Fold these 2 entries.
Entry 1:
Amino acid sequence: METQKETYTGSPYFPTVTGTEDASSHETIEQALITLQAQKDAWAGLPVTERITLLDTLLADFSAIAPRWTATSTQAKGLTQDSPYAVEEWAAGAWPLIVMLRQLRTTLEQIQRTGKPQIPGAVTTRPDGQVIAQVFPRRNYDRLFFGGVNAEIWMQPGVTKENLADNLAVHYQKADPQGKVSLILGAGNVASIGPMDILTKLFIDNEVVIFKANPINAYLGPLLAEAFRALITPGYLRLVYGGAEEGAYLCKHAKIDTIHITGSDKTFESIVFGSGKAGAERKASHQPLLQKPVSGELGNVSPVIIVPGPWSASDIAYQAEHIATSISNNAGFNCNASRIIIQQADWSLRLPLLQQLRRVLASQPARKAYYPGAQQRYQTFIDAHPDAEQFGKQNEDELPWTLISGLDAEQHDDICFTTEAFCNLCAETTLPAKNTVEYIERAVDFANNHLWGTLNITLIVHPKSLQDPAIAAAIERSIANLHYGSIGINYWAGISFALGLTTWGAYPGHDIYDIQSGNGVVHNTLMFARPQKSVLRGPFRSFPKPPWFGTQAAVARKLFPRLVAFEAKPTPWKVPAIILNALA
């Protein structure tokens, strides 16, 4: 993401590109908004039973087009169907979307029966009064498919056990809900982001939606129209196309009540304050151009904190794969991609872990740098760090996997700390400490105060390290003290994006004058009104390896289509093939 210290120009999420679909005319946009305005109150008051019926149709329609959806995305990103990376369009594109549809249906069934979503796990209160709800696993199927993985949502201060129910599905508790029209400015990198934002706005925030496709992946628009026709036909959703000019027209339109963007902080600021010198002056004087609510998910310099411990050679190999996957997924064009590896300076296994990471990155096939502006952004980092290690060769279509190691943690203005690379590049830094507990505390302080953004962070800690009560307590303190919207313990925090039940968005507290990773959350299918963060915990080493690991492509290629088919229509008879596939 761009920051004040950045030297390049142009948003990594909304560059000027020509889409595959013609831009919508003002007349088309006007007609879409007239329809949505006419239907917003009908949607706001639509009975839960009818919403469940809509979700059943959406599940069937999307599962039917999922193979075309993934094939279209794969081709657009310059991949062949037999590429080891092709499965990402199932794992990050089709599967999270259909999981969210299934989770929403379960939640609405519970609301229909009892008036509220049912929290599947324990609700506890920390000594400081903060409430924690365990949300995953929700089903026995989750325990089978995600062995040893669980997730919690921590609530904001002021939420108690006693009032937690009042903070669930608040829009479904209103006797006379008022309709609103929401504008969603779609992301261009991951196929599931836009549709999942649509589902959040419609089913959780209770707002009808006009969705402007990003020009980069506007090719998905016709397929989205086919999959979501159950929402389009009655006038609850409209899809439009175009670039910055159409986006600006929509943002200023009087018929738009709220705006949500997945993009960059600079695009957010342009929407709220205007662009150029005038926009900067409005921001400085706290005079926003728009008064309507604008929410956003705006990226992160995502850290991985490595906790020293008695790692074996096989542990190092496993975690190198884990970290490499979090860098290389989607060619590095992810806001949740690992960007900064933090290690204790004198840990004896620091260099062996880096060396194994180099081996994994060097073994990865080159990827097409499909996202506009990637070459220029990449070069900015290389110019700042000419000693960067490149695994492969750079050409006009591809970028090499790149590691910048040994950054000076005291150089707080280093581009790797202040700017999201948004390409296939990661860096490493070290912190001195007298012992592991002090290191954990220093790493938390460094991540909170010296890295840009608050979206997601991963901590990796060996189970034997956790047998030391002081280290175990330090890890729990770190979870409480980290100002990130999603925290992964031994499991890439980016997976929180895909579970549906967990929240996805920045740590709360950014105002529009320092927006960083954004405000508000999406997904959150249990519909918590005041979440603070999601915490995902997994085994130090999962068996079998998670199918989203980059080295598991052969397994994942068969597994994820089966998982999509399962979520479309869950049945025990589909489980054995899924389990056997995962163990293959």
Entry 2:
Amino acid sequence: MEWINDLIFGSGVAHAIFVLALVISTGILLGKIKVFGVSLGITWILFVGIFFGHFGLGIDEHILHFVKEFGLILFIYSIGMQVGPSFFSSFKQGGITLNLLASSVVLLGVVTTYVIHVITGLPISTMVGILSGAVTNTPGLGAAQQTYFDATGSQDPSIAMGYAVAYPLGVVGIILCLILFKSLFRINIAKENEAISNTSVSKMTEAQMFSLQVHNPSIFGKTIHEIKELIDKEFVISRVLHHDSETLAIPLPHTVLNENDKILVVTNLQNIELIEALIGQKIDMDRSEWNKLDSQLISRRINVTKSAINGKSVGQLRLRNLYGVNITRINRAGVDLVADPRLQLQLGDRVTVVGSEASIANVEKFLGNSLKRLREPNLISIFIGIALGVLLGSIPFMFPGIPQPVKLGLAGGPLIVAILISKFGPKYGLVTYTTMSANLMLREIGIALFLACVGLSAGEGFVETIVNGGYKWIGYGAIITVVPLFIVGIIGRKVFKINYFTLMGLISGSMTDPPALSFANATAGNDFPAVSYATVYPLTMFLRVITAQLMILLCL
């Protein structure tokens, strides 16, 4: 039975994998437990790791360090790939205000942490760990640990212990703030729904279909190409019903519009008034009526699966001239976009094409439309990105007044590169598409490995730390959680008049806290909290990682 003893209490690779698997699987099972509808999720892996470590079930120090850092890279890189496409656009349509408020939460948290450090005399490394737990930010914990090791050549277990102690109340504290704001601001859910539906950014920019009848004499006899030059807005004329011949046609650039012709326009709510004013009045004629007029024309959604199409604009494909079809909409990540000629296609986009059966069959061959191709992972972009991220994270930057050079590290470097690659990669022919399930799998494996290693390394002295005064850290963490949220929440609602649903997403995103977002979505019954969460999440995540490093370097 010696082999069993070696497997459980040994020091080899098999022992390390066995212990990690036990910690992760046990933690995931416990994470399914909910108390008052709230669960700590995979954070249970951290606590199980602490439990195992406390009883001496650890793994080799070098293996532990490698697995922890590699897990962090996988986790942070997959997050960057997910939020990258929306990172730059998040600064539009009110995103600047939301990101400024979220940045204020980060800054106030740092200030509160430093004040507690000065008053209590706790080491700044410990306080950064408490800060990371209080704001439920695991990458910040990883960045702080790595920066401390780079600066001193040793590990400080109190960083992970502070995180573990402060995290549970951090999750609960964020949700309690959301509940408190509902009472404090006397929120009426029905009124909030009505208000936000009138100002919804996604509703205003998402592609929608309208029927118009040509009534403006100034455009009688003009071609569609000439009309589009007059209106510098995103819109597509999907079909034309000529009044004189009663024939339905796929519009081409040289198609002429005459009085009383009916057209089906694809655009968004922001542009429809201008288009209506120039062309003619809106009529009550839905898509089904258009479909009945000519059975020879069909509409079909085709998946872009050929790598050669990746990064090319709709205009460059010249599908209308080559195949006699019309692209009306492009669905990307569940959102319908107007098929503007300047819009660049990406692998995984679903293109809505209108034309004859034969023409659409040719377009399917041209674009790929292979679901099997989409299921194949594009590993080259992932590992090129990780290599570039590690390279960027290793570059030292010197700042006046800071004795040690600042590095983006294994958290910040991959995060920035992932955001840039996912946004600009398709423009240069790099295939960055990956399914949501594949991205989620990569992310969950990474965070599970990281949390397990952090727990195992912190477990040895955890109980002793709590008994010898560590219980006070829970209170410090609660202050760091509540004070910034309370201040920014009041400013956001009273000064900037932010809708309650948007405010919930802002608060959840500023703390990078998925359980709080889940609670907000359940309360709102719509996706507005998720939209504002995604708007502030990339910048907040970046700031959490950078500030954790700066606090360590400035105070060591």
